[in-house]
Amino acid sequence: MNAIEVTGLRKSYGSVHAVRGIDLSISAGEIFALLGPNGAGKTTTVEILEGFRSRDSGEVSVLGFDPRNEGNAAREWRNRIGIVLQSTSDSGDLTVVETIDHFSGYYSNPREVDEVIHAVGLDEKAGSLIRKLSGGQRRRLDVALGIVGNPELLFLDEPTTGFDPEARRAFWTLIENLRGSGTTIVLTTHYLDEAEALADRVAVINNGQIIEISTPSELGGRSTAQALVTWRDGSEVKSEATDNPTALVNKMTAIFNGEIPELTVTRPSLEDIYLRMIGKTHE
Ligand code: ATP
Fold it and tell me: Whose CA is nearest to atom 19 of ligand 1?
């Protein structure tokens, strides 16, 4: 069974058509990233899946449950999902450990509080008041609160905003570990390297519609895109775009009779491809 099934999802705010017919299937155990510029409709889509926003039309199933339903079934369902929102409310007068401990009480099968604190790298701040944390440390606490319930499905909305590079790498390791335990993860991010490092598949969304769903390596024809070969020839740096970089490098090896000075062979990055896709459809 798919963890998430969405067909024909639509949502408008007055005259703003935020989501204009989205279809999505996300498998259990998959890490799925939603990419798109500000205002594309990512948060609206994700918050409908989380049961925090109403929809105008379309079918939605999340872990076999329609998130707009309420009552006991909804409470049981909520117990199975974890959520890291874009911004969280303040609970500044509690410590890190108190906050996580408090939240763990909402779940029937929570993780150990110490384990969660360690997983997000907040060991040294466990006894600190929330209001004394830095922005990046606050964000790590948000992530801790998202995973403390041991969720089957985790929603992460721009989880690493404000993280320093080391914290981002540590976060990626945490996500890899969650993947290993079979957690399905829906991630929205503006960091293309993060999507590339983590996601099994990405969806590019713009103006409320999905432009393409693919693996990071194949998005926008990336895997078959022309390669750019550059090298130094005397005082000049030369370059050539080619469909067949191996043949070009072989030819050059013969010309240089061995090592090609400063040789690089590159294909478009996920960011190059993404910007091309977004540019093409920007209204
Ligand atoms: P970002 O990357 O900036 O978080 P996003 O892709 O998550 O953007 P959404 O927050 O889903 O985009 O917004 C989609 C569109 O809907 C935008 O034009 C936004 O202004 C509008 N919108 C979102 N929430 C509301 C709301 N509560 N009331 C009115 N308009 C809204």
Answer: 39
Residue nearest to atom 18 of ligand 1 (CA): 39
59 with 6: CB under 8 angstroms? yes
- 């519609």: which residue's tokens? 209
Nearest-10 Cα torsion for 192, 195, 200, 202: -60
CA dist 230 and 260 (Å) reads: 10
Best of 44, 47, 86 to mutate for ligand 1, by most ligand atoms within 8 A of CB?
44
Q: What is the full per-residue pLDDT of the chain (283 aa) written as tens digits?
A: 799 999 999 999 999 999 999 999 999 999 999 999 999 999 999 999 999 999 999 999 999 999 999 888 888 999 999 998 776 656 668 899 999 999 899 898 899 999 999 988 899 999 999 988 888 888 889 889 999 999 999 999 988 887 888 888 888 988 898 888 899 999 999 999 999 999 999 999 999 999 999 999 999 888 888 899 999 999 999 999 999 999 999 999 999 999 999 999 998 889 999 998 888 644 4
- Measure 18 CA to ligand 1 centroid, in angstroms: 7
CA 245 – ligand 1 centroid, Å: 43
For the question of whether the overall pTM of this predicted structure is more than 0.90, the answer is no
Q: Which of 153, 148, 191 is nearest to 172 (CA)?
A: 191
Name the strands in the sheet holding 153-157, side by side, starting at the edge strand that comes first in the sequence: 81-84, 153-157, 184-188, 31-35, 201-206, 209-214
Nearest atom in ligand 1 to the alpha carbon of residue 40 is 6
Nearest protein Cα to ligand 1, atom 4: 38
Pocket of ligand 1 (CB under 6 A): 13, 16, 18, 36, 38-44
